[in-house]
Structures are given as structure tokens and as C-alpha cells.
Design goal:
The protein is of the alpha+beta class. It is built from three helices and eight strands, in the order H-H-E-E-E-E-E-H-E-E-E. It has helices at residues 2-25, 40-49, 108-116; strands spanning 53-60, 63-69, 74-80, 87-88, 97-98, 122-129, 132-138, 144-150. Strands 1, 2, 3, 4, 5, 6, 7 and 8 form an eight-stranded antiparallel β-sheet that branches. The chain is globular.
Length: 157
């Protein structure tokens, strides 16, 4: 009787090992959960931390579309991968243009932080225009409002 149970245990163990081997042989991506889109505020902070002079960010076609200063005063539009916050080739069809405004003293990250202090932390869009930041953000109830942030002082109007 003990031999029979040992044999059943051995067969069960072999079946589990065979299943595990088959599962491990599958591509890794099959077992990983799909990545979720990063919040826009995170993307702004990451790009700023990476030293990218962000001039605008909005969502389009499942990607983030960003306007950035190329370093010589030229503003270019690029794509941002929504799961990694890395620059992509998306939107590279946009034509570069010269910045019309001076460089802001307050970064995009600082502007959205000022707006978050009002209770509107869910960033929807940010853009630097005419010497000020225009920020669209939602509060905890999902109410979206548009804010103007002074690009010199960071004060919210």
C-alpha cells in the first residue's frame, strides 16, 4: 500500500514538474501584466529630472505628445512612451519652430506642483505659452479646471 502511494506521489510530482517546465518555457511576456499608462504628472517630473526642457505635454493617440526645447531655442514635438516616459519617434513629423517666449524660470514640474497645491493634482495638460504655464488638472471628484501659473514666480492665477 505504501509503495502504491509513493508511486502516485512520484507520478504527481512528475506531472507538476512537466507542467512547470512547460510554463517556464513560455515567453516571459505571456506572464507579465500589461503595463499601465504612467500619470502625466509623473512624466513631467521625470522629463524635468532628466534635464529635458519641457514646454508642453498632452495625450494623443494613446501616447503623450510633448513639446520640448531642443537646446538652441527650437521647439520640437516628440512622442513620449506612456509606460516608460521615454522619448519615442512618434510625432517626429512635426516641424520644428523657434520659441516665441523667453525661457521660463519656473519649470513645468514646478508649475504642476503649484496647481496640485490647490487640490487639482490629476494633470491633464500643461503648456508654456506667452510667458506663462497653462495647466489643466482635475481634483479628487474629477472636476477639470484650467489654471494659469506665472512662469517667473510660480504663483497660480
Amino acid at each position: 500500500m505504501k509503495t502504491r502511494f509513493r508511486m502516485i506521489d512520484a507520478i504527481a510530482s512528475l506531472a507538476v514538474l512537466a507542467w512547470a517546465g512547460t510554463a517556464l518555457a513560455q515567453p516571459h511576456s505571456q506572464f507579465t501584466a500589461p503595463q499601465e499608462r504612467l500619470p502625466a504628472a509623473y512624466v513631467v517630473h521625470k522629463l524635468t529630472a532628466d534635464g529635458i526642457a519641457l514646454r508642453g505635454l498632452e495625450a494623443e493617440d494613446g501616447l503623450y505628445q510633448a513639446k520640448i526645447d531642443a537646446g538652441d531655442g527650437t521647439i520640437v514635438t516628440v512622442g513620449i512612451d506612456p509606460t516608460t516616459a521615454e522619448l519615442t519617434d512618434a510625432f517626429n513629423r512635426s516641424r520644428p519652430h523657434r520659441a516665441k517666449d523667453d525661457e521660463p524660470k519656473v519649470s513645468a514640474a514646478e508649475a504642476i506642483t503649484s496647481v496640485a497645491a490647490t487640490g487639482h493634482w490629476d494633470l491633464r495638460e500643461v503648456e508654456y505659452e506667452k510667458g506663462r504655464w497653462e495647466v489643466k488638472a482635475a481634483d479628487d471628484q474629477g472636476q477639470v479646471e484650467k489654471f494659469v501659473v506665472d512662469a517667473t514666480t510660480g504663483s497660480v492665477r
